[in-house]
Input
Amino acid sequence: MLRAMFFGPFVALYAILFFFLLAFVFVLLEIGVIHYAFQMVGLPPELAFLALFASLIGSYINIPIARIEGGPVHPMEVVNSFGVRYRVPVRYAGGGTTLAVNVGGAIVPVLISLYVLARQSEAILPALFGAAIVATVVHRFAKPVPGLGIATPMLIPPIVAALVAIAFTGIFHVGAHVDAVAYVSGVIGTLVGADLANLRKLGDLGAPVASIGGAGTFDGVFLTGIVAVLLA
Output
């Protein structure tokens, strides 16, 4: 009786190398998509690459701006939120919570938004209305996570940003700027609705560091801007 035979075409070493190569290809494709999205917003190719590089590297950089008095530090080193695991920066634990601004998740996206609006002034008004709606929706779904800060679901902000961009560019008859409106609405709306609107809650979370645009929000801000552009 003949039976199916299962064996790998490569020895283990070659199989590992193959999977690393496959992962590398996927990373290149992802970077290409993000780079393309930045160009759709209106950034020239060299500036789009710089924005991508600054966003990814800057996501590891948090600039302290204030100290918030609060309760004891959360005891867990890893917390889960919306299916994503985050590591709590316990080595920075001390009295209260350090409020910081994440370079890649707040400063860089805001600078890109200002650049885009300066180059496409017709997009300013619809982007402001769009950001207000995104902020309202994101604030509704934002979740204070003990030990971490404020976390947001990944998919809701970009979908809302794309929808409001399509709607408001149609209302204001500036359809050529839908990508810019989607990006700015998603980025600014997420930062305001998730982090800035919940600053008063940070002291009660026991987080050593609460970073605006950082852990829990970085994926919301960065991916929102990119995905909203692609959806729009």
